[in-house]
Amino acid sequence: MRFWAALYALSVLALAYGVWRLAEPPQLTGLFWLVLGGLGLKAAHDGQRWLGQH
Amino acid sequence: MAEAAGERVSPALAGAAARPPRRWNGAAAPGDDIVSLRTVLLPGVYAWATTVALPAWSAGNGVARAGALSALALLVFGAFAARRNLVLGRAVGVLGFVGLSAGTWGALGPTLALANLDLVRAALGAIAWGLFAMGWGSLRSPERVPELDPRAMQGEPLSPKTRLSREAGVIFGACLAAGLLLPLLAWRVRENGLALLAHAAALAGAIAVINVGSRLVLARYDGQDGRASATRPSPPRLFLALFIAWLALGAGVWLS
Questions:
Q1: Nearest CB partner across the interface for A48, out of B189, B216, B247
Q2: Tens-place pLDDT, residues A1-22
Q3: Less packed terminus of chain B by CB within 10 Å, N or C?
């Protein structure tokens, strides 16, 4: 549980930093962090669903 | 009624029976407490005034002004019509109003450039549009008590299996704050095309943050009714592996 919660928190920070960095060049850095945050959120979502089912 | 039948009456029902419900005759008036004029017209008129009427009158464009006035007329008509015919009211008050507002913006053309916008007024107008959208939701007036509906099945009140801790509320509040922060950060982006991407990504991210966060908060309460299985298969790994791979790729590019 704590692992998925930590992953969720890191993903939120990555998303926030990605949106923040989109305002400054190079925008690819912001896109990188956005994708990382999205992948982390999806992983946390799957982990939460697994927790609820088992 | 329930007491005469020998059934236990809940405190809410007993209290409600002491106060005669407003206009409850077994069948609710169509759209009576479904659409509130206050929650629809107040934010709707404010959003119209700041984001539609003000640019239309500033630009001096006759077509835009006609579109703005028509949009206002549809808003007011739709809000009142919804109290009699919900489908018609929403079609006119939502689709018609928003459509004509968008048409007004189209008629304004290049005068709606970012350099001409007052950011504070635009932000307040955006909030008003959001409140207008939520204002069309169903609302129950305080006098209406669901237990007094003739179609309600009387019985023992259901007790909750568990209660959420105060910590859960605090954590959910933090998730909600994080979700609201993302769209605000997107306002930093000034370039037109990039700003659209930033706002779209921030909005999608905010929805995902609140959705996943709320599920994680409630995950600890799952399985308390004994549905959890004895054997536990391994957790999902696909997106976790993709996350690690993407992170490793970024680290490799940064270090190179």
A1: B216
A2: 788 889 999 999 999 999 999 9
A3: C
Entry pTM: 0.55
DSSP assignment of B143-174: T--GGGSTTPPP-PPPPPS----HHHHHHHHH
Residue B134 tokens read as 């939520």
Confidence band of B147 (pLDDT split at 50, 70, 90): confident
Beta-carbon-side half-sphere exposure of residue B169 (alpha carbons within 13 Å): 4
Tokens 């409850």, residue? B24
| Token pair 């704590």: residue | A2
Reported ipTM: the value is: 0.89
Q: What residues contact B253, with CB distance under 8 A and at least 6 apart? A: none
* Chain B (190-249) residues lying within 8 Å, Cβ to Cβ, of chain A: 190, 194, 197-198, 201-202, 205, 208-209, 211-213, 215-216, 219-220, 222-223, 228-229, 232-233, 235-236, 238-240, 242-243, 246-247
